[in-house]
Design a protein that fits this description.
binds iron/sulfur cluster; 7-stranded mixed β-barrel; 31 strands; 32% helix; alpha/beta; globular
Length: 754
């Protein structure tokens, strides 16, 4: 079955004329990213030559994918838009909440109990709004998208950072926060700063122990975790064409570790083969007909330095395997230098566990190559010296790698197959004999190896490598083992060398017919009830925020004057609180608890002007809200930087914060606050921050004349009876002013439905 074929067909039907229009307007050779981005402009008539890294542009992606942790609040918000279905095809994937403990079957059963209410809610809501629901155990979001939804030249967003995986099938696929997803689900334009472009030409061909993973491990080292920020990485060259489609997906997936907006490969034969193998022959044919639009123009490839903002060349014939880490994915060490580096840095050399799989490295090619290493080891009477675990990316992959005997080969050396889910990659790992302080080393083929991410232990040195290198290291038990040059001693005391891995890009016997774990939405959407368990502390329906009453905000007590850095983590902490991400009231109990109070240098201890005593930020905010005044928050520079977290903007609104006044905003947070109906202002004169006193009551005057470019007068009513006034700026455009007046952006959409 091909999902959403009508939409894909209609996209390709319009592609030629759209690209012709773009060519007429721009009149210069186009990169692949420009072709895709510009053919997805929200208002097609506004297409022009945008300044990369400067202009903000509204896009209309073709689809949205959401994982179970982030989908909860995004869907709860979408429900307030009053729509019958999502504006674009959408899918939800139950992959993040499954704890890897005993093994696939038992762990899935446990997840079904622990997360029952979340799964029931997501399943019912998917039925109601015509959203594809992938049950727990179906697989990891990005693998499912690659196998079923991605198509060359398309554009999608996903509420997960590794959404760019679909770039392996020639799609611009961008990881976003829930608020962005709501925009697209509700049919609004989705805003993105027009990305800069990094061109990477791959020459030569991989061989031996080197794999696609090593390309991105090397690039992570070159670009670092920040070097890709604001950029799309576009790959091309004969080396790119020599890679399998799933190898390309691995590179695009882990490209998120450079901070890149996304990564992409041009359409080629590997994509045709993959589409056909996964039952999408018709999509492959449409892509082939449009292939001239699914790659950059010839002039771009002939002179890449002229068309990309940054240009890199990598010769795959010379590429050796890499091991990245510990604690960061951009600390890239070629395997030949690992001994020296590990000893020099005092990294623990004994590897306790090797983990393969995840969304980025569980393709048929990955699993078959890793299995070939084990098969060879078994034939040479070698045993595993580290624990070994496998996380298949999807039921599709699990069933064919089981059918073709690879998982059984892994079991022969003690390999443990976990559920088709994120598991250890997102810290959902009940590690055996866990000791939260023990200094130890593990190695995996996932993306991220930040401190505590996998097992919660800050003393776990975590390294990243390809599945075949992880497997070789499991057989040696040593971080410093280099299968290219080193030998191992087998159970008979003989010195043996591992053969180079061998694998197949695609299963020779096809993907077969498996129960993929997909739940098709039921037809009678209006009848479908949303299931939220009574008294649930994880899920709560949202109530639309009230519209602005048309009056200036007067005598708002200061809630907190935050001192120094105030990121979205300070505003809405993660960790423990994530379990409440579907319950606004409960998660609001973390509002600003990490922010430092300017007046006492403490966190979560602020003056309650109603009582004269000190209390927590959330409780004090509630008190002001319930007394009918609401409150105002003051902050410093780049307020709300960090990951785009819609809770950081919803919580203040829920708690009655009417205004956030700061020296400067991180743009995404500012927009998120605007969408929720919180008034965002910046000091015209930043020194006015110093005038604000702990027990001030603040007037915000001039809202009746609120228009683009206007100013708001701030009057500080000090407790000694004195008053000070100054001006504040805002960055609202006309439609954002309407969001404020309506009480939220979603209120506008809901009203337009009536
Ligand atoms: S497997 Fe890891 S990287 Fe992939 S979606 Fe899950 S948590 Fe994210």
């Amino acid at each position: 079955m091909i999902f959403d074929f009508k939409m894909i067909d209609s996209f390709y039907k319009q592609l030629d004329s759209r690209i012709s229009e773009i060519r007429k307007k721009l009149n210069h050779p186009l990169t692949l990213s420009e072709k895709i981005l510009l053919s997805h402009i929200y208002h097609q008539n506004q297409t022009k030559s945008f300044s990369r890294g400067i202009d903000y542009v509204d896009f209309m992606p073709d689809r949205v994918a959401m994982q179970d942790a982030t989908a909860q609040m995004a869907i709860l918000q979408f429900m307030m838009a009053g729509k019958e279905t999502t504006a674009v095809p959408t899918s939800v994937h139950c992959d993040h909440l499954i704890l890897a403990h005993i093994g696939a079957e038992a762990d899935l059963r446990t997840a079904g109990i622990t997360n029952k209410e979340v799964y029931e809610f997501l399943s019912s809501v998917c039925n109601k709004y015509d959203i594809g629901y992938w049950k727990p155990g179906a697989g990891i979001i990005h693998q499912i998208v690659l196998e079923n939804y991605a198509f060359p030249g398309g554009m999608m967003i996903g509420t997960d950072s590794h959404t760019p995986n679909a770039g392996g099938l020639g799609m611009i696929a961008i990881g976003v926060g829930g608020a962005d997803a709501v925009d697209v689900l509700a049919g609004m334009g989705w805003e993105l700063k027009f990305p800069r472009l990094i061109g990477i030409k791959l020459t030569g061909k991989l061989s031996g122990w080197s794999s696609a993973k090593d390309i991105i491990l090397k690039i992570s080292g070159l670009l670092t975790v920040k070097g890709g920020t604001g950029n799309i990485i576009e790959y091309f060259g004969e080396g790119a064409e020599s890679l399998s489609c799933t190898g390309k997906a691995t590179i695009c997936n882990m490209g998120a570790e450079t901070g890149a907006t996304c990564s992409i490969f041009a359409f080629d034969n590997s994509m045709t083969e993959y589409l056909k193998a996964t039952g999408r022959k018709d999509v492959a044919e449409l892509a082939m007909k449009n292939s001239n639009h699914l790659a950059a123009d010839r002039e771009v490839y002939a002179d890449p330095g002229k068309y990309y903002d940054q240009y890199i060349e990598i010769n795959l014939s010379e590429l050796e395997p890499y091991i990245n880490g510990p604690y960061t994915p951009d600390l890239a060490t070629p395997i030949s230098r690992m001994k020296e580096e590990a000893v020099k840095n005092n990294w623990p050399l004994d590897v306790e566990v090797g983990l393969i799989g995840s969304c980025t490295n569980s393709s048929y090619e990955d699993i078959s190559r890793a299995a070939s290493v084990v098969k060879d080891a078994l034939s040479q009477k070698l045993v595993a010296r580290s624990e070994f675990t496998i996380n298949p990316g999807s039921e599709q992959i699990r069933s064919i790698t089981e059918r073709d005997g690879f998982l059984e080969i892994f079991r022969k050396i003690g390999g443990e197959v976990f559920a088709n889910a994120c598991g250890p990659c997102i810290g959902q790992w009940a590690r055996k004999d866990a000791d939260n302080k023990k200094v130890n080393t593990i190695i995996h083929s996932f993306n991220r190896n930040f401190s505590k991410r996998t097992d919660g232990n800050p003393n776990t040195y975590t390294f990243v490598a390809s599945p075949e290198i992880v497997t070789a290291i499991v057989l040696s038990g040593k971080l410093t083992f280099n299968p290219i040059t080193d030998t191992l001693i087998n159970s008979e005391g003989k010195e043996v060398r591992l053969a180079e891995p061998e694998g197949l890009n695609l299963p020779p016997d096809g993907f077969g017919n498996v129960d993929s774990g997909y739940q098709k939405p039921v037809r009678d959407q209006k009848e479908e009830k949303i299931i939220i368990a009574p008294g649930s502390d994880r899920l709560q329906l949202l109530i639309p925020f009230k519209e602005w009453d048309g009056h200036d905000f007067l005598k708002l007590p200061l809630l907190i004057k935050a001192k120094g850095k105030c990121t979205t983590d300070h505003i809405s902490m993660a960790g423990f609180w994530l379990k409440y991400r579907g319950h606004l009231e409960n998660i609001s109990e973390n509002y600003m608890i990490g922010a430092v109070n300017y007046f006492n240098d403490q966190t979560n201890s602020i003056l309650n002007q109603l009582t004269g005593s000190y209390g927590t930020v959330p409780r004090t905010a509630r008190a002001y809200r319930d007394s009918g005044t609401g409150s105002a928050v003051v902050g410093e520079e780049n307020f709300g930087e960090g990951s785009s977290r819609e809770h950081a903007a919803m919580e203040p609104r829920f708690l009655g914060v009417k205004v956030v006044l700061v020296k400067s905003f991180a743009r995404i947070h500012e927009t998120n606050l605007k969408k929720q109906g919180v008034l965002t202002l910046t000091f015209m004169n930043k020194d006015d921050y110093n005038k604000i006193k702990e027990d001030d009551k603040i007037d915000f005057i001039g809202l009746g004349k609120f228009e683009a470019g206007s100013q708001v007068t701030i009057a500080l009513n000090h407790s000694d009876g004195t008053k000070e006034e100054f001006q504040a700026n805002h960055s609202y455009n006309q439609s954002q002013i309407e969001w404020f007046k309506a009480g939220s952006a979603l209120n506008i959409i809901r009203k337009s439905k009536k």
